[in-house]
Amino acid sequence: MTETIKDRAKASGPNRTRGPRSPGSATGKPKRPSPNANRTALARIKRDRMLLLLALPGMAVVAIFHYFPLLGNVIAFQNFQPFLGISQSEWVGLDNFDVIFNGDPRFLNALANTLIITLIQVLFVFPLPLALALLLNSVLSERVKRGVQSVLYLPHFLSWVIVVALFQQVLGNAGMLNTFFREHDMATFSIIGVPELFKLLITSQVIWKDTGWGTIIFLAALSRVDMNLYEAAAMDGAGAWRRTWHITLPAVRSVFILLLILRLGDALTVGFEQIVLQQGAVGKAASEVLDTYVYNNGIVGGNWGTSAAVGLVKGVVGVVLVLGANKLAHVFGERGVYSR
């Protein structure tokens, strides 16, 4: 009996044979890295060489037309003369930024118009694709939905020249509606060429042209919602509005925030081509924005350095807005443009 107890004590002591330790324990052997972790960058490039070759033309286009021209921003610190070039133009430091720091009236007018148009479009234009996508998503007939989508997408593919011409032909003083009113002895109205209505006019043009196209991303997000959620909510007595509030809107919230962040990056860009085509009819006081200010001062007026300075500040402000809005999205638990 005594020997048996001693044998058990030895077996339970520190010299007993231990089983294999778990790889994650503090005293066990470290876990061996997977073979994929040991692959060098060269091996990964060799593995994905076909994908990289396919992406090479697009990367070249982005580099040549988007990143390489950024080097030209140095003329914002020069008295740039095209016939002298960048290398021989005189360096003037921050003198070109005086229009911003000292509050040039023409610049302040362009900035005010830009901010007003941006505020109008963010509040009234940006949410419209989501509202339209919700309406299309509620259509039960797929054939009707596709037909409506095709009609709504079409204006996006028209150039601003055609869109402006269409609005002039319909709403102009000699347009279709005023001609109809005159023929029936009715009062006419003036929208085209009226400075007070210019911001309303360009906002309506943006809505007509791009709202339908903007529904694509929201419809794609809505297509991923499990229909069983709607059925379960309906069985629990939830109405259409409650199902939209608790199921549909949370499903598109991350997409909405992502698009809003990207829109804030273009907050100071409100459509150069659309505005410059109609600027002559209403004057610069009502229509001048930062993009047209850069064009009129740089290309038309020859003040290359000042225009480059305004454009540079506009780009920096856009980057700051994107980073700030993305950080705010992280605070509220959203991923944003990029994750932390």
From TrEMBL:
Compartment(s) of residence: Cell membrane
CDD domains reported in the protein's UniProt record: TM_PBP2
Main location: membrane
Membrane topology value: Multi-pass membrane protein
Transmembrane segments: 50-68, 115-139, 151-171
Protein family: Belongs to the binding-protein-dependent transport system permease family.
Protein's name in the database: Sugar ABC transporter permease
